[in-house]
């Protein structure tokens, strides 16, 4: 068992060439103190785990901020250290990474499909925000898999299954090959122990013979490259146990029948030399037909590039050869993490932005999918399934998941090509639209010259999420346009029925729907009803969720207010705002505005209203904007003088990442502040964000502001703000 001092020295030695020893030591000591007394299942000090995670991240060449976050990644989850201390010592960027990892630590992908889908959404949201979070999570998972033997069998199988189904494919999709194969082999060991040991034993039995064969092949290749003046690194390349097992299943053969368990990798300095080496290899030995793949010209979706060929080498045995440049090698081994291997002054490769755009596109598509099962299926298609490569007639390559059809191909080219697709030719022959494309197919889409109109039946044919979404969006748009036209007609009819008093109220001879929507009262109605866009409001009117009468009533209430009248002292005692006195006014009825609900301490202004006396508004109330313009003479300055313990209604709007127990935590904070809840509304969006509106009654304004600060401290809270308007 290593001591803490030995672990620190090991960390500093590994990072001495790229990272600040002072910063690494500081982070190590901080993490060690935070985890003091905690032990791993293995019996080792807990600090062993974050150190191993940091070392894996160093192997990937990650920046220093990420290494430090790796050392601290369990501090918030497993210790009582406040997040403010991490920010003070290491900065906001490190804290942000540690907080994001802490949230991912709580995610589980079992036992139900719905639960799995919801948590996958959260993971992809985290990935899109900062890809470094997932790199740290992969390193964390790798070390946990390396120490899985210390857990009980049930937990071993659950974690291994999760690793094989979620984390290994994710590493593959991000191109982090080095982590991907290690996760697969470790998961294979715990999920299929008998098969794992069978494959391992068979590989070991023939290792010496195969190694002699590879050593001879390397010697021959090196000699030929030297003659050609090509400087290259030539090494043996072992197949990993899980990939061998998968190949046995796919080909239906035993391990003794597999002659490509070892291959040769050639790494050169330029793309031109890759093809020169390929020519030399094919001159040395006869290539196997159908086994050459050019992933340099046709790179994989995870940006992998290499030339692959299989030749019949010495003694008639097949030999796999990979040829690539050093840059291609870095991407092949480390995927998106290779971005951090480049020095700052060197231009970063385009694949980094390509990978982030893939993630962002995935998030955009998933927003269209309300159903968890549908989302899960789309993820399986876009992330976890094998790909095929097909060609346009001009020779451009299109990558699609296995099972894709010509319609998927058409939408991959362009939305309009998909909409106007009427037929397809594959390799020069007409095929039905449900034809399943194969690797190497040349696909030509036959389009209509008229406006594109997809068929609803295509939804049962297409494979890709992109195609499904584009087809659904088309039919949603058609339905939306019809619904909006219906809503406009209903609203305009209601305006005509109320035209006389609306003209008087708005002081216009002609009234249009746009006049009412753009009016502060119209904007207020949309805001109160939760509509950020006019189109959403019109869709709700068209579907009957909101009636035209409800909208017009907003204006009617304001119109019906009568003139202000003085009242007696006795009436004044009943009608004055309870609990406060307003300076400079006497014998006038006063009311709290029902739109913005000011409370003592708010900056306020008065408006002389018909029949309601002075209406007290918050100074930032949106309704005051128009009132100040149209009736500036009715605006009166007022101020709070003394609080007498009255009751006031106000509201809070909360945005948070949805989770189990969120509402319970918020309500507990309200109860602790001794504040009464009048109304509560919760809505969870497709993006997994919960939006909560709390209407409360208070008699102590400081308690209200204290409550807001307490809610902000809860985990997964994004924002807490005072409601500007509500009814």
Automatic annotation (TrEMBL):
Domain ACT: 651-725
Residue ranges occupied by any TGS domain in the UniProt entry: 386-447
Keyword Transport applies: no
Coiled coil (residue ranges): none
One GO-annotated biological process of the protein: guanosine tetraphosphate metabolic process
PROSITE patterns documented for this protein: ACT, HD, S4, TGS
Origin: domain of life: Bacteria
InterPro entries the record matches: ACT-like_dom_sf, ACT_dom, Beta-grasp_dom_sf, HD/PDEase_dom, HD_domain, NT_sf, RelA/Spo_fam, RelA/SpoT_AH_RIS
Sequence ranges assigned to domain HD in this UniProt record: 46-145
CC terms in the record's Gene Ontology section: plasma membrane
Pathway: Purine metabolism
GO molecular function, one term: hydrolase activity
SMART domains tied to this protein: HDc, RelA_SpoT
CDD domains xref list: ACT_RelA-SpoT, HDc, NT_Rel-Spo_like, TGS_RSH
Function: In eubacteria ppGpp (guanosine 3'-diphosphate 5'-diphosphate) is a mediator of the stringent response that coordinates a variety of cellular activities in response to changes in nutritional abundance.
Annotated PANTHER family: GTP PYROPHOSPHOKINASE (PTHR21262:SF31), GUANOSINE-3',5'-BIS DIPHOSPHATE 3'-PYROPHOSPHOHYDROLASE (PTHR21262)
Family: Belongs to the relA/spoT family.
Protein name: Bifunctional (P)ppGpp synthetase/guanosine-3',5'-bis(Diphosphate) 3'-pyrophosphohydrolase
